[in-house]
């Protein structure tokens, strides 16, 4: 990933239709973009100098350091102290998605964006009470196999409470070498906490899967990555060749990804110039993402599946298709991760990820903390899951067949 020019993708460091929750990170899988919208820029010397006029008064910090240096019974690592200072400064902003990464963490963050992750295969975020929660377990990976669900509270890692920890801190504790175990304390729906031990593994998530079910094409996007658009276009070509008459777009448990991918996927259905999403800062529109007009699925009856694990770029796509009246939404209310993070590259290899704006749907509704309520609400019960049934998908097919 080049640092000199931010790409417009929806894990945008590339403006991420980030969750990063954005959000939120593939915890365990450690996706630090969480469901997000990220932009990545490089912080130049000139920019550093330009900001000096508004520099903070560090005299009290120097006083604390002097006392620590003179009184502390032990050795001090100056680099660790500086990293701690910067991390604490950013944390004091009070936004769980505004974070400082030291050079080692920055490398891990970039590796995660590139899909090189080792963990349990789930995304981590925070709820309204600042609990660390599961945003979405990834299909087929250890977290899902262990039974973790969206909105589960991760109350502890290896016997240590997560109270007061940031998402990144918990993610770092959950990640580790493939083949090793991590023990999580989970609270679900206010019930008694329980422990679950999960074996870490290398996480390689195919971003798109598809199949034809009779005259219906089923398209599953697990996250919005670099290859998402090309794979989706390949799927669409196959659908057209086999003359499918309707599409089920499955965005369940999709934590998001690059904004550009969300725009391009939405453009498969939308006419050129149609609004996909707006970016607002302080209530003012700063950017509007428009469909490209490359729409081979124009007029194709479509149902989009969403749930509590659908966030960021997946919410942008679902909202764009729904608000432009080209698709019906089925499932459960989406997660509600619609903040935009921008990543600044610092000169020492560290990075600052900072929230710069919020995403709004074409109908003007805010995505962040609001989520999207589907047209037809369907819940997959525990009994359904145990029986191998998918009531949400069944409903999507039923509604499509009525339109064909």
* Tally of helical segments: 11
Mean pLDDT: 84
Say what the CATH topology of one domain is: 2-enoyl-CoA Hydratase, Chain A, domain 1
Calculate Rg over CA atoms: 22 Å
Q: How would you describe this structure to a colleague?
A:
The strands form six sheets. Strands 3, 4, 16, 17, 20 and 21 form a six-stranded mixed beta sheet that branches. A six-stranded mixed beta sheet has the order 13-14-15-18-19-22, sandwiched between helices. The chain has a four-stranded antiparallel beta sheet with strand order 9-8-10-11, with helices on one face. It has helices spanning 45-50, 59-71, 78-91, 103-113, 142-145, 167-174, 228-241, 259-267, 313-323, 382-386, 391-403; strands spanning 11-12, 15-16, 37-42, 99-101, 117-119, 122-126, 132-137, 153-157, 160-161, 181-187, 194-199, 201-203, 208-213, 216-221, 246-250, 275-281, 284-290, 302-306, 328-331, 339-345, 351-360, 376-377. The protein is 27% helix and 27% strand. It has 404 residues and is an alpha+beta fold. Among the domains are: 120-203, Pdz3 Domain (Roll); 208-337 and 359-403, 2-enoyl-CoA Hydratase, Chain A, domain 1. Helix 8 runs parallel beside helix 9 (313-323). The chain has eleven helices and 22 strands.
